[in-house]
Write a structure and sequence with these properties.
This protein has 121 residues and is mainly β. The protein has no helices and eleven strands. Strands 2, 4, 5, 6, 9, 10 and 11 form a seven-stranded mixed sheet that branches. The protein has a four-stranded antiparallel sheet with strand order 1-3-8-7, with no helix packed on it. The radius of gyration is 13 Å and the shape is globular.
């Protein structure tokens, strides 16, 4: 059973940067693809980014060019660097792990508890 814990969220101004971290325990994170999702109030959870076991990445159109996913298998962790933040990036951000790389949250086996990112305009 893999446990995931996100950190690094906070309140920032538009244009600022944040770096989210997701630490894994109870399993080897390197054996999984890791996804980042977000959920704003009243909206469904949406795909943000994925980093595969081989560190290939893919992003939603809304964050492409601004967000960067990375991983450090030695630390059993993945990261999401978020630059040029916009008001519409405000949401709870979740990391998740899957053996089947996908953009659908239903294909993810393990989830963190989420971390709040609030961007003031």
């Amino acid at each position: 059973q893999v446990q995931l814990v996100e950190s690094g969220g906070g309140l920032v101004q538009a244009g600022d940067s944040l770096r989210l971290s997701c630490a894994a325990s109870g399993g080897i994170f390197g054996n999984y693809a890791a996804g980042w999702f977000r959920q704003a109030p009243g909206k469904e959870r949406e795909f943000v980014a994925i980093i595969t076991r081989g560190s290939s990445t893919s992003y939603s159109d809304s964050v492409k060019g601004r967000f960067t996913a990375s991983r450090d298998n030695a630390k059993n962790a993945v990261y999401l660097q978020m630059d040029s933040l916009k008001f519409e990036d405000t949401a709870v951000y979740y990391c998740a792990a899957t053996r089947t790389p996908a953009v659908s949250p239903t294909l993810y086996d393990y989830w963190g508890q989420g971390t709040q990112v609030t961007v003031s305009s």
